[in-house]
Amino acid sequence: MKAFKYSDISLVPQYSDVHSRVDCDTSIKIANHKFKLPIIPANMKSVMDMRLAKWMSDNDYFYIMHRFDRKLSDDVGLANSEDWKTISFSTGVKMADKLEVLNISKSPDLRLDFLTIDIAHGYCNRMKIMLEYIKKRLPNTVVIAGNVTTPDAVISLFNWGADIVKVGIGQGSPCTTKDKTGFTVPMFTATKLCGDCYESQDQFLSGQKIPIISDGGIKYNGDITKALVAGAQMVMAGGMFAACTDSPATSSTINDIPHKAYFGSASAENKGHNNNIEGKLTNVCSNHMTYEQKLNEIKQDLQSSISYGGGSDLSCLKYDKKAVDPIEPLDHFEKYLYDPSYLKVGHNILGFDVYMHGICRRLIGKDPDYNYLPHLIDSLAISKAINQEIDYNPKEDFLQWQYRVLSIRTRKGKNKLIDLCKKYEIPFNVKKLHDALYDIQKNYEVFNKMIWDIEI
User: Fold this and answer.
1) Is residue 168 part of a domain?
2) 13: which DSSP letter?
3) Is residue 456 domain-resident?
4) Which residue in 191, 310, 343, 424 is a FRET match for 113, CA 20 to 30 A apart?
5) By percentage, how much of the chain surpasses pLDDT 70?
6) Is 332 found in the same domain as 311?
7) 231 and 165 in contact (C-beta within 8 Å)?
8) 1 assigned to some structural domain
């Protein structure tokens, strides 16, 4: 299976009835907290500091303060003493991290809204132990855990106690994990796979997905939209914030151009030593914007995305159709499919539809069963036979005859459903074509016209 980066993906505009893009709502609600945007600056030294964390809290933006060279209990105590709106910090999985959590739990007056367990490879036993430890001692804290990059990992972390799972390994620009270890999954595919996970069959039936944060690979504001479309609830980005004029990243001038020193969490610059390095320092050009200006730009671009997506808020970027048990509709469909008293007619039904039916059976653990094929009529085959003047010989097996006609490659005649509707003067709405039920209706009307042009 090919895996996709955000740059491999293009989104198709939809009809919009909003008066102006400025009317579009970019707010997001996470665990009973409402924030202005679904974007999070990366919890990295060169991206986030306490000054910015407080500013983002005061202005209703979500943030995660990094854990490096800091004492969690002191930071949480300071945020409480200043009564921050949102208190969101990071921790690791070492004994020292557990002691900090223990110290916070011993002070019942301390509020900690979000705590992110931030390690390079989150699908591990130490993550499981830390999740269980935190949930036991801080039961009212929303726990974010990562990073992982597979559906199995998302489900496991959720079952271990994570409320939200952070997805992405090796895709950030200062990260060298993919080059040094060979392990990674391009971010659009990783987000798509991990953004469609359910803890249980009951959750699947109710459509309750495990919430994820897509972390890494964001180069442009449009990539934020792509991550949301892929299934993320929120999106984390580093470089675009490190490049801001008021970021904690060190400023420099290279060839008379202002730059910012952006480095990964597993880099020597962050660790202070050269052991197990999987990151690097990158001097990124300053974007000449403050955090406030950059966040406002992201808001405007997301409002445009919502408008192009055909909605009025971020929900238009989600495919949240209520899930149903796939076995039930398939059983209902096959009741007619395998009944020889019914004649099944479809356009290219012997190609794509038969192929997809076989896949559906495999997905629910059944072997493909093609006993229904003799009862199918493919209107594409009939159309090609009419255009090429190929008669049907009753002595030939009808199914084999259809496949023989379909295998003929020719430019003669137009055989698409839209062309057949025009040929037989059947009214149609071009905007509805490719809607399954509408296509079935139009195909039935076409077939009733075609049978007068050929004997079968």
Assistant:
1) yes
2) P
3) no
4) 191
5) 94
6) no
7) no
8) no
Q: Which of 24, 175, 194, 197 is catalytic?
A: 175
> 93: closest CA among 48, 53, 134, 47?
134
The residue type found at 101 is V
Q: What is the spatial distance between Cα 112 and Cα 133, in angstroms, rounded to a whole number?
A: 15
Residues pairing with 346 in the sheet:
378
Residues 30 and 169 in one domain: yes
Q: How many domains does the chain have?
A: 2
CA 445 to chain centre: 39
Query: Using CA atoms, how far apart are residues 217 and 7, in angstroms rounded to an integer?
Result: 9
Q: What is the dihedral of CA 131, 96, 184, 149, to 10 degrees?
A: 10
Statement to judge: residues 396 and 303 lie in one domain: no
Q: Which of 121-130, 255-264, 358-367 is predicted with the least confidence, judged by mean pLDDT?
A: 358-367
Question: 210: which 2 tokens?
Answer: 């495990």
CA-angle at 384, arms to 378 and 389, nearest 5°: 125
For 316-360, the pLDDT digits (tens) are 998 654 445 667 778 888 888 899 888 888 888 888 788 888 888
Mark which of 257, 284, 317 sits at the end of a domain. 317
Highest mean pLDDT among 298-302, 358-362, 401-405: 298-302
Reported residue count of the chain is 456
Tokens encoding 395:
């002595």
- If asked whether residues 42 and 125 sit together in one domain, one would say yes
End of a domain among 254, 283, 317? 317
Residues 72 and 180 in one domain: yes
Would you state the pLDDT for residue 330? 81
A 10 A CB-CB count for 205 gives 13
User: 84 near 57, Cβ under 8 Å?
Assistant: yes
**Number of C-alpha atoms within 13 angstroms, CB side, residue 321?**
3
Structural domain range at position 287: 6-317
- Quick one: pLDDT at residue 321? 47
- If asked whether residues 426 and 281 sit together in one domain, one would say no
Is 144 among the domain residues? yes
* E-state strands within 249-353: 251-254, 257-263, 281-285, 344-346
Annotate 373-422 with DSSP letters as a single string.
GGGEEEHHHHHHHHHTT-PPPTTS-HHHHHHHHHT----SS--SHHHHHH
Has 24 been annotated as catalytic? no
Give residue 286's pLDDT: 93
Contacts of 208 (CB under 8 A, 6+ apart): 198, 199
Q: What is the CATH number of the domain that holds 154?
A: 3.20.20.70
Residue 325 confidence (pLDDT):
60
